[in-house]
Amino acid sequence: LQDEYLDQWGKALEQSPLANQQTDVASLQASIAYHMNASLFRTQHNLEKVAVYQALAHSMADKLLLDWNRTQQRYRKDNPKRVYYLSMEFLLGRALDNAMLALHMKTAYQEAVQGLGFRLEDLLEQERDPALGNGGLGRLAACYMDAAAALDLPMWGYGLRYQYGLFRQSVQQGFQVEAPDDWLMRHHPWEFPRDIKYDVQFYGYVATKMNDKGESRLFWESDHKIRAVAYDVPVPGKDGFCGNIRLWASQPPHHGGFDLDAFNQGNYDQSIASLKDAFLLTSVLYPNDNHQAGKELRLKQEYFFVSASVQDVVHRFKRYRCPWSEFPNKVAFQLNDTHPTLAIPELQRILVDVEGLAWDDAWDIVTRTFAFTNHTVLPEALEKWPIYVMEKVLPRHMQIIYDLNLFFLQKVEEKFPGDRDLLNRVSIIEEASPQQVRMAFLAVVGSHSVNGVAALHSELVVKELFNDFSLYYGKDKFINITNGISPRRWLYQANPGLRDLITHTLGSEDWVADLPQLQKLAPFADNLEFQQQWMAIKYANKVRLTQWIRDDCGLTVDPRALFDIQVKRMHEYKRQFLNILGVIHRYRVLLQMSPEARRRVPPRVVIFGGKAAPGYAIAKLVIKLINSVADVVNNDPVIDDHLKVVYLPDYNVSLAEKIVPASDISQHISTAGTEASGTSNMKFVINGGLILGTVDGANIEIRDEIGEDNIFLFGTLADQVADIRHAQKYHGVLLDANLQSVLDAIQAGVFGDASIFNPLIDTLTYGGDFYLISEDFDAYIKRQNDVDALFLQKAAWAAKSIRCTAGMGFFSSDRSIGQYASRIWKVDKTALGNGSTSTAD
Ligand code: F58
């Protein structure tokens, strides 16, 4: 458009209602009423809470949109180096509360809806929690997008818009039951469909053709195409910045997927076959956490996602007509684990086959553009794809991977001549039957930087997972960036009581953007009055949680009891089994005590929550065991309120926001060396919750920051695990005596039909106790006794709780993102430009 028209558009927008939104209560009410009528086609005579929530969400989204356009327009004009965070998962949680707080509009909206006859808290509960992620990895992506927006860092997320998110969980007769998460059944006001589309192809064949310049080129051709369409999700930042996550949905490529000829011939199934195909592709998030699904559809999801994203980024880059050599100075791709690794051969393919670059020039660009974050060392979670599947679905990519591997192995051979074993070990192709592509190796070879997510994990990544690679590339390529969490969602939003006390004590809200300031709370740790205020907030949060427990589980628990919480995905390595075995031990000890002795033990409420992958039988049995134990313990009149066991169904982000501020103690008890980092540990501690944990993942750095005295650590160390497992193999597992009597009780039917638990108990005996539950049992029980003893000393507990929060400054996602930006992406905060507000990208 010519400049004069551009100006006119700018002026028109300035005059529009969008640019002239007022934030007084009457104007907010007007905007809610407007959306009720204009966006939802409803009137005040036909109102449900959900409709009011939607009108309110639309009203809030208007404000975000303006910021979104301004921010993106500025990036478009200034063309800074941009970061693209490629992640199959974004576990965002609810949007409305977060947006209102980011834009400082919650109080005004609260008043506005109250004046219209509703309570804001009730309306917030109407929002569906988008569950486009499994657990830690997906939630980390959300915290990182939040930090980038808060820091005004030009970073976009790219992901998939699954029609069905992570399944919804209910519990029936103690067993997990899964139902589809149909989160889009109702209109979702927080996404904006764009007219941006790319075709992605699968299958087909590779042919040689002449290009325009008469050069012979390889072309990948296929009739099997699916169209990716973009949905943008705004990420509220600070001071008018707004980030973006672009999610791709699959659609049929042409004619809306309808085959009229087939229909006319009466072949109805055939007439909509391509529609079904396209719909299926992004229909559902694979529900495995730390385990590879290995299905062809999953591979297609991965490729669909990276192909659309890389095409979009290349399209944006080409708009500026820079030479290709500039690409790494304008683009940084961060791979959130190996799931987006196909972006590496995809960019190589586009540069060589489509753009006509020489192989080596293209590879130089690719390797300067990509960086890779590893999130696990568990062998079962490391992605490998059988070559016969890759050759069928992505024939050209398979050729590229073979070539990349060949050139890589030649270089390794040059550096370490004659070492056949080494070549075998580092080859991207695993010589197994069937042959497989090792995606993590492809990610390492195609990236300039590889990082783990906590200090111990990054050490294991170098020493174990990629040891040969670190010898070949040198140590500098392998770094650590310890995970972080958003202080905005996990303290400011989730714990308003504590937020206000901290703000009042420190004199301003500056600590949110500069989290190490929390250290200024430390001098108050022994101040009795401050302790009382602090613990009163904790108590209020516990009361709020008891109401949820009553509503969700029909169980009444006493908020004065010690709240002991373990909420995370159900997995053997996370050892919820150890926790429930410990609960049974406690139950038995309490039963043997005199009433007086029992009264001297602080009453406990042990709370569990977390989903098991639908195909993970052992994890599902642990859920059943927890519920069976709960049935017995909660109804035992001798035990009364001394011990209660709660399993909260359908654990998700919004439930976590209620649970996290209410813990006295939370458990992070993975077998040492298995939990890459953990992030809920950070969330609990920043909210003044103490933790009971193993010397694993980020627990170690939390200890270093808050001090050894303020954390209950126990158990085997990572470097002892291999020896213990080795010894078990030869001498068998000698079960801890207390543990043996707990198992005896289960097998005697104390918790119902014992036979169903046999496979679970076998993991300790016949299975060789791979996760070292027996080995750690005694230390665990002793540490739990220390927790009891401290809980009786109210002042000492409160002081530790305050020191916990005070020491957590390091774990802000802003710190993590700052480290990624300076150490990997080499991007800076952009200077605030003055871009006009016409349509952005
Ligand atoms: C988690 N991984 C780690 N993977 O287990 C946890 O220690 C870490 O704190 C977190 O990442 C963030 O770094 C994880 O959540 C998955 O859920 C994958 C989803 C896709 C399939 C394979 C597992």
From TrEMBL:
Its EC number is 2.4.1.1. Transmembrane segments: none annotated. The keyword Cytoplasm does not apply. The keyword Transferase applies. Keywords: Carbohydrate metabolism, Glycosyltransferase, Pyridoxal phosphate, Transferase. GO terms for cellular component: cytoplasm. This is Alpha-1,4 glucan phosphorylase. Its cofactor is pyridoxal 5'-phosphate. One of its GO terms (molecular function) is pyridoxal phosphate binding. InterPro entries: Glycg_phsphrylas, Glyco_trans_35. It is an enzyme of class 2 (transferase). It catalyses: [(1->4)-alpha-D-glucosyl](n) + phosphate = [(1->4)-alpha-D-glucosyl](n-1) + alpha-D-glucose 1-phosphate. One of its GO terms (biological process) is glycogen catabolic process. The modification N6-(pyridoxal phosphate)lysine is found at residue 683. Belongs to the glycogen phosphorylase family. SUPFAM superfamilies: UDP-Glycosyltransferase/glycogen phosphorylase. Allosteric enzyme that catalyzes the rate-limiting step in glycogen catabolism, the phosphorolytic cleavage of glycogen to produce glucose-1-phosphate, and plays a central role in maintaining cellular and organismal glucose homeostasis.
